[in-house]
Design a protein that fits this description.
By secondary structure, the protein is of the alpha+beta class. It has a single domain, classed as RRM (RNA recognition motif) domain (Alpha-Beta Plaits), CATH 3.30.70.330. It contains four helices and five strands. Strands 2-3-1-5-4 form a five-stranded antiparallel beta sheet. A hairpin with a 2-residue loop joins strand 2 and strand 3.
Length: 141
């Protein structure tokens, strides 16, 4: 049978199943929660998983790869394979996708990702031309 005939019989049943991964170590299942983050987007709208995965991987550029899994109900687990990759994502946030804020927390071992409270994040706000009388430590704290 010719190679063309074999390709003609090739069928992809569901393209949205599975996860496209980076790096050699990224093919493992989530077994080590040490470098896992759990997150959700602050929106009521449905967010396309494939788009999220591709966008976040390209923005973060983790050196050792990342495995992104959709857990359901808008909850995602991001498994990194090096502590620097995970730390960089946590420290350089907050992150957004299509103007929706990504709420992230470190996932502890033996904690169900669906039960993690994801309702807050830290933000830096820069305000220009603050009057001198409002620059006290009490006002700025």
């Amino acid at each position: 049978m010719a190679l063309e005939d074999l390709y003609a019989k090739l069928v992809i049943e569901d393209e949205d199943q599975g996860v496209e991964l980076q790096g050699g170590d990224a093919t493992k299942e989530i077994v080590d929660y040490c470098y896992c983050l759990v997150g959700r987007f602050h929106t009521d709208r449905v967010v396309h998983f494939i788009s999220i995965r591709n966008t976040m991987e390209s923005i973060w550029h983790p050196k050792k790869g990342v495995c992104i899994k959709e857990m359901g109900a808008g909850i995602y687990v991001f498994q990194f394979y090096h502590p620097i990759d995970m730390s960089r994502v946590l420290e350089n946030g907050p992150w957004t996708f299509n103007n929706h804020l990504l709420l992230l927390k470190h996932l502890k071992e033996d904690v169900n990702p669906m039960r993690v409270d994801l309702f807050e994040t830290s933000l830096w706000v820069q305000i220009h031309e603050v009057p001198v009388e409002l620059r006290s430590g009490r006002v700025l704290a």
